[in-house]
Design brief:
Layout: E1 7-14, H1 30-34, H2 36-50, E2 54-58, H3 67-73, H4 89-92, H5 107-115, E3 119-123, H6 138-151, E4 158-159, H7 168-172, E5 181-184, H8 197-210, E6 217-221, H9 223-227, E7 232-235
Parallel strand pairs: 1-2, 2-3, 4-5, 5-7
Antiparallel strand pairs: 1-6
The chain binds zinc ion.
């Protein structure tokens, strides 16, 4: 934050199976998902060592301890996507064998992140919500964020829209939920920043983390540009998911 031309923001999407549920099965993605807890530990150690601050944009369904809790706390108003497969609620309310709970719920990991130095939690929506899909409405989006806010152990003040699907009218209601920034689309000047000591450390760290998993997004932003918009639009420079790209 001290640099005049920009700052580094690391934002990780923590979503486990919810980020890929419409495209994968727990069986064909289990190797990726199983590595996430170890990756979280490794990342937290690296961040602590180098004093790196990050925001973990978290699918808030991960805060649930069980499928029963997810069912109890799910929104009444659910997204009515034309493509029904995009909604996780048939899946949540369908047969559940409990065998893969660790691919769906991660409360312990999130508590570790919260307890770690300089780490922030943002939302990646409650249900990995797709704001540009046909059929769903602004009211359904708001019902999703209501759930996210209700289950998050910390106040949410930033959002990463799943698959970067956002709309102006949706951005305009974020402040009702205490959310003051979102991750916007990529802008090319982000790649123009020069190497500094800090950036080298960051790249080294990210490379190391990348050996554990498909990582994070990291972002170089101009604070003056960010400050010109409200809610603040933090442009994305690269996208990775935490073990899951989406
Ligand atoms: Zn996602």
């Amino acid at each position: 934050m001290s640099k005049s031309h920009g700052a580094f923001l690391i934002s990780l999407d923590l979503e486990l199976f919810w980020g890929v549920r419409d495209k994968r099965t727990v069986h064909n993605y289990s190797a990726n998902l199983a590595g996430v807890p170890a990756a979280v530990d490794a990342i937290l150690n690296e961040f602590s060592e180098y004093g790196i601050s990050a925001t973990w944009s978290t699918v808030d369904l991960l805060m649930m301890e069980s499928i029963e809790e997810a069912r109890r706390l799910q929104p009444i108003l659910k997204p009515q996507y034309e493509d029904e497969n995009l909604s996780p609620y048939n899946y949540i309310n369908g047969p559940w064998d409990g065998e893969h709970d660790s691919f769906h719920f991660a409360k312990r990991d999130i508590e570790k992140i919260i307890a770690a130095p300089n780490q922030n939690i943002g939302t990646h929506t409650f249900s990995h919500y797709y704001a540009q899909e046909q059929g769903q409405t602004l009211e359904e989006f708001k019902a999703d964020l209501d759930c996210a806010r209700a289950v998050s152990p910390v106040p949410l003040n930033s959002i990463v829209f799943p698959r970067n699907q956002y709309r102006d009218d949706y951005v305009k209601v974020l402040h009702e939920f205490g959310i003051h920034s979102y991750r916007g689309n990529e802008t090319s000047w982000l790649y123009q920043s020069t190497e500094s000591g800090d950036q080298s450390i960051l790249k080294r760290t990210l490379r190391l983390l990348d050996s554990y998993i498909n990582l994070t997004g990291y972002h170089t932003v101009s604070w003056s540009e960010v400050a010109a918009s409200y809610p603040y639009n933090i442009p994305a420079s690269r996208f990775y998911g935490l073990g899951i790209r989406s």
